[in-house]
Amino acid sequence: MNNEVYAAAMAAISDIQNLTNDRIEALTKGHGMTNIGAMCAANAIATDLFRGANIQLTDEDNGTLEIDHVLEKGIEAAKEAGANPANAALFAATICYFAGSNAQAGVPAGNRKLGALARMIAGADRTGVISVPTPKSNNKVSGFAAVQAIYNAMAEGKLTRIDGRKLPLGVAGGPLYGHNTLGEDIGFPEVSMNAARIGTEAMMNAYWGCGISASPVISAIFGTAAALEIVHPDAFVGEEYGGFFDVNSAYLAGKAACEAAGIPEKLHMRGTGEEYDSARVIGDLGVIIKDIGAPTVIGMMSFGEMLCAFQESVQIGAGFSGGPIMPPLGHMTADSIIALRALIKFKGDVEKASEIIAEVKKNEWLDPEIAAVALNTIARKTEQVRRGPVTRTMILGTEGVRSAAVFRRAQKTYEGLKAGKSVDEIVMELDRERQTTVETRAASMLGAMTGHEVKIEIKKLVGGARRDHPFTNSYYGFDTDADVDLTVDGTTFELRGLGQNVIPDAVFNDKKDLLEIIPLAAIPICELQLSGHSIINITVPAAVAAAMKVLEPKEAAKLAEKGAKAGTAAIPGGREKALAVAKLALRIMSSMEAA
Question: What is the average pLDDT across 224-244?
Answer without folding.
Answer: 92
